Automatic annotation (TrEMBL):
It is found in: Mitochondrion. This is NAD-dependent protein deacylase. The keyword Transferase applies. It catalyses: N(6)-succinyl-L-lysyl-[protein] + NAD(+) + H2O = 2''-O-succinyl-ADP-D-ribose + nicotinamide + L-lysyl-[protein]; N(6)-malonyl-L-lysyl-[protein] + NAD(+) + H2O = 2''-O-malonyl-ADP-D-ribose + nicotinamide + L-lysyl-[protein]; N(6)-glutaryl-L-lysyl-[protein] + NAD(+) + H2O = 2''-O-glutaryl-ADP-D-ribose + nicotinamide + L-lysyl-[protein]. The lineage of its organism: Eukaryota, Metazoa, Ecdysozoa, Arthropoda, Hexapoda. Its EC number is 2.3.1.-. It comes from Allacma fusca. Binds 1 zinc ion per subunit. Keywords: Metal-binding, Mitochondrion, NAD, Transferase, Zinc.
Length: 268
């Protein structure tokens, strides 16, 4: 049977739920103006994210990879949470008052869920506003703009922009040991943080309702989370502009911008 698009039936399940997991991806921030990874907006210069979001790319050309992340940090700093982020945060507060639990598991590295007021948040892929030292592994929060003087006005996304070729000594450095730092995100081929995976696994096992919002469901291990919840008979609803490889596994599919569909689904 194809997934249902019956919002009234879904809202009844929302009202009856006691423990809700909301799994989000780049689509939840798209209406804030943050580009998604796949599709037309996913390119920076001539590169797809997959080509730059790896340790190999960083080792080969840390200046280029820092330009890419510097650009994305600066973009996010100019954006605001949209009605989808806000609906999720308000829903968490409302259910908390009723003694129920809402947990957001996000693949996003922007900080828009936090700024919207979401409290119970698991950030599977890290944060644009954290750094990790390549030398001593120190993890630090960093909202500096620019993150270092040499990156000021660099990182332009147009295909004909010139590489800044910043010497490694002038790239962002560790406060503790002066070593080179990298963006505090999880790159392709890297393991997710074990604590985050354990915490996410527990919520996914215990929840009685799951929403999967604005993700293409192609990047593992997050891509298997919602299908696993559906497989144990728990209702799962997908909110997306289009179908994904996981759509047929879910009971509900609400097609359209989640800034519209989520407030409909989660409002009192
Ligand atoms: C809207 C909307 C609107 C738009 N309203 N909707 C098993 C099988 C196959 C492969 C693997 C596997 N296990 C591991 C792998 C390899 C790899 C992987 O999954 N590759 C696939 C591409 C095949 N995974 C990993 O490497 C992971 N590590 C791991 O598993 O370690 C163990 C291991 C290692 C090696 C081998 C085997 C095991 C780590 C993955 C880390 C992902 N990191 C990134 C980059 C983070 C840093 C950065 O930001 O630069 O995370 S990749 C990128 O994709 C980013 C995202 O979080 C992630 C997911 O993307 P998302 O959020 O789904 O965005 P989009 O753009 O794809 O989709 C947007 C969606 O929104 C679309 O559907 C739109 O329609 C929709 N939309 N507007 C509603 N308004
Ligand atoms: Zn260090």
């Amino acid at each position: 049977m194809p997934p249902s698009a019956d919002m009234e039936t879904f809202r009844k399940l929302v009202n009856a739920a006691k423990h809700v997991v909301i799994l989000t991806g780049a689509g939840v921030s798209a209406e804030s103006g943050v580009p998604t990874f796949r599709g037309a907006g996913g390119y920076w210069r001539q590169f797809e994210a997959q080509q730059l979001a790896t340790l190999q790319a960083f080792r080969k050309n840390p200046s280029l990879v820092w330009e890419f992340y510097h650009y994305r940090r600066e973009v996010v700093l100019t954006k605001e949470p949209n009605p989808a982020h806000l609906a999720i945060a308000e829903f968490e507060k409302r259910l908390q008052h009723e003694g129920k639990k809402v947990v957001v598991i996000t693949q996003n590295v922007d900080d828009l869920h936090v700024r919207a007021g979401t409290e119970k948040l698991i950030r599977l892929h890290g944060s644009l506003f954290q750094t990790k030292c390549m030398n001593c592994s120190d993890i630090a929060v960093n909202f500096d703009s620019p993150i270092c003087p040499a990156l000021k006005d660099k990182g332009k996304p147009d295909t004909n922009a010139e590489d800044a070729r910043i010497p490694v000594e002038s790239l962002p450095r560790c406060q503790k040991c002066q070593g080179l730092v990298r963006p505090g995100v999880i790159w392709f081929g890297e393991n997710l943080n074990e604590g985050d995976l354990t915490a996410a696994g527990k919520e996914l096992e215990e929840c009685d309702l799951c929403l999967v919002v604005g993700t293409s469901s192609v990047v593992y291990p997050a891509a298997m989370f919602a299908p696993q919840v559906a497989a144990r008979g728990v209702p799962v609803a997908e909110f997306n502009l289009e179908s994904t490889p996981a759509t047929s596994r879910f009971g509900f599919h609400f097609e359209g911008p989640c800034g519209k569909t989520l407030p409909q689904a989660l409002s009192p």
